[in-house]
Write a structure and sequence with these properties.
Layout: H1 3-16, H2 18-38, E1 47-53, H3 58-68, E2 73-79, H4 82-90, E3 96-100, H5 104-110, E4 117-120, H6 125-153, H7 158-165, H8 183-213, H9 216-222, H10 227-256, H11 265-289, H12 293-310, H13 322-325, H14 332-345, H15 354-370, H16 375-379
Parallel strand pairs: 1-2, 1-3
Antiparallel strand pairs: 3-4
């Protein structure tokens, strides 16, 4: 009897129920390979788009060739009207189109400032954004070329006209991710977020199912009546499996796919282990506060889903409403993501991100303090549907 007996009992339960196999192993592994393979190219290139050329002049054809030569845009269709192009967008054949108006060349050369119009479909955020970026770059470049041509026709030298349009050159040097690889921040946020969600769900299910099925009395008896022994013994097998998965994700990203690792790999592995323990502790806190399967699962599922936005993967906490931004610090994945930025991307020593490690340690401390609240419900299990 004791913790070893609880661990053996939990291993038997894990091996006897397919839901544990699916939730603990199959789903995290499948999604890890899905996300990493989906973003294996780093940045989507040559997004399908169309051109609506209503001018059919040498300048409009030059503009079309310039657009097709861009890295982000692939002109796959040439439409004759706005209506044809918008129907192609609705059919999903293209993600945007660029409109060259009638008399574009004549108005440009006469200085009448023609209007270039472009449309992009932001229903699909990433390709729509890339098309927008390509269209806007071409519009600005074409506008500058037209203005420069007009200035040269008025007697200004080409060199001086170029200096007026672009008085200084801008050198852009993206820090820590100079390749602008989407996977370097999407995969490193989605995968821990998904792992956090699955840890929440499986931990809550493992604990509250004992209450639902009435087996919590036997569980406590196996632990000799000690609630801490019961909880630790139950969660240790899952801790081992989830830690192996977390280490595997770190190895896959930084070893196999060569994500930037400017700091200490052991520090990231330590963060991964603490992250798993913190997620389990969060679920234990939810079970202690609400010892009901339906409600506890609802709380953890909602928290896990909102982590993808509240943990500030793509939107900074400083710009959130204060009442919402504070919730980001209640999620373990937030601290893990900050450790990744500090250690892996910025190459900082652990000392400078120590408070994020402390943040992960707060969750198990709170779980230890609140665990005794569950004992009364385990001794008198009452299932409330």
């Amino acid at each position: 009897m004791g913790i070893l007996s609880v661990i053996k009992r939990e291993w038997r339960r894990l091996c006897s129920r397919p839901i544990y196999l699916v939730g603990i192993a199959v789903v995290p592994v499948c999604f890890a390979f899905f996300f990493v393979s989906l973003l294996s190219e780093g940045l989507p290139l040559k997004v399908p788009a169309a051109i609506v050329d209503l001018d059919h002049t040498s300048l409009s054809r030059q503009t079309t060739r310039s657009l097709d030569a861009m890295e982000l845009v692939d002109i796959v269709q040439t439409e004759e009207s706005y209506n044809d192009a918008i129907r192609a967008v609705q059919r999903g054949e293209i993600f945007g189109f660029f409109v060259i108006p009638r008399d574009f060349e004549r108005d440009a050369l006469s200085g009448d400032a023609p209007t270039l119009t472009f449309y992009n479909n932001l229903t699909y955020y990433v390709p729509g954004t890339l098309v927008f970026k390509g269209f806007k770059t071409l519009a600005v470049t074409t506008s500058g070329r037209v203005v420069q041509t007009s200035m040269v026709e008025r007697g200004i030298s080409p060199k001086l006209a170029g200096a007026f349009l672009q008085p200084m050159d801008v050198a852009s040097h993206p820090l820590n991710n100079p390749w602008l690889n989407y996977s370097y921040y999407l995969s490193t946020s989605f995968l821990p977020g998904l792992l956090e969600l699955m840890i929440f769900i499986m931990t809550v299910y493992a604990i509250t199912h004992e209450i639902k099925s009435g087996s919590s009395i036997e569980w406590l008896r196996t632990a000799r009546g000690d609630i801490w022994t019961a909880v630790i013994g139950k969660l240790l097998p899952q801790t081992l499996i989830f830690t192996v998965l977390a280490f595997g994700m770190v190895s896959m990203m930084f070893g196999w796919h060569h994500f930037p690792m400017n700091g200490s790999l052991p520090a990231m592995l330590l963060a991964a282990f603490l992250f798993v323990v913190a997620c389990q502790s969060f679920a234990v806190i939810a079970c202690a506060a609400v010892p009901n399967m339906r409600l506890a699962l609802s709380i953890c599922c909602l928290s896990g889903i909102l982590a993808f936005s509240l943990a500030a993967f793509s939107f900074p906490v400083q710009s959130m409403y204060g009442a919402m931004g504070i919730f980001s610090y209640l999620l373990p994945v937030r601290y893990y993501f900050l450790i990744y930025i500090d250690v892996a991307l910025n190459g900082l020593p652990v000392f400078f991100t120590r408070f994020n490690y402390v943040g992960l340690l707060v969750f198990p401390i709170l779980a230890v303090a609140l665990t005794p609240l569950m004992k009364r419900h385990l001794l008198k299990p009452v299932y409330v549907p």
